[in-house]
Amino acid sequence: PFQVVPFCGHIKGGMRPGKKILVMGIVDLNPESFGISLTCGESEDPPADVAIELKAVFTERQFVRNSCVAGEWGEEQSSIPYFPFIPDQPFRVEILCEHPRFRIFVDGHQLFDFYHRIETLSAIDTIKINGDLQLTKLG
């Protein structure tokens, strides 16, 4: 019952404080990277604003995040206490929307915060997932 990757889905009603996005999956055996993005619509041209893009890069053991507003990528953030993903192992990512920020949890542990760069939370209505993983559950 895996979702096909790359995946693009609609967030009903958009984001708001208190809303949580759950992504559960299994990392591929020989992963390079995978990404989870919350965007304002699905448009490719012009590209939709990206409220937050989370990208796990296995070669560098980095979990980077950024946003793209009006076609301009912002400052990338990469500090993490540890790299939480293991090849061929399941994971659970939760993105909790709070008033000033997203809080990111992996397997129940809070990993980092990302302060909103897109103010209109309700416009953030699309989730995109791609890369070296299998999706088992979205919520």
Task: Write a brief caption for the model.
With about 140 residues, this protein is an all-beta fold. It has one domain: Jelly Rolls (Sandwich). About 0% of the residues lie in helices and about 50% in strands.
Produce the secondary structure layout.
Elements lengths: L6 E4 L9 E8 L5 E7 L10 E8 L4 E8 L2 E2 L16 E8 L3 E6 L2 E7 L10 E6 L1 E6 L1
Antiparallel strand pairs: 1-10, 2-7, 2-11, 3-4, 3-10, 4-5, 5-6, 7-8, 8-9
Describe the structure.
- This protein has 139 residues and is mainly β.
- It has one domain (7-138): Jelly Rolls (Sandwich).
- The chain has strands spanning 7-10, 20-27, 33-39, 50-57, 62-69, 72-73, 90-97, 101-106, 109-115, 126-131, 133-138.
- The strands form two sheets. It has a six-stranded antiparallel β-sheet, with no helix packed on it. A five-stranded antiparallel β-sheet has the order 9-8-7-2-11, with no helix packed on it.
- Strand 8 (101-106) and strand 9 form a beta hairpin.
- The model has no long low-confidence stretch (mean pLDDT 96).
- Residues 7-139 form the Galectin domain.
CATH names the topology as Jelly Rolls
How would a crystallographer describe the biggest sheet?
6 strands, antiparallel
- Termini separation (Å)? 14 Å
Q: Kindly report the spatial arrangement of strands forming the biggest sheet.
A: 1-10-3-4-5-6
User: Judging by the overall fold, what is the CATH architecture?
Assistant: Sandwich
Mean pLDDT: 96
What number of domains? 1
Which residue ranges are poorly predicted, with pLDDT under 50 across at least 5 consecutive positions?
A: none
Write down the secondary-structure element order.
EEEEEEEEEEE
Structural class: mainly beta
* Global outline: globular
Measured as a percent range, the helix fraction is: under 10%
Name of the top-level CATH class: Mainly Beta
Strand portion = over 45%
Total helical segments: 0
Instruction: State Rg.
Output: 14 Å
For the secondary structure, the number of strands is: 11
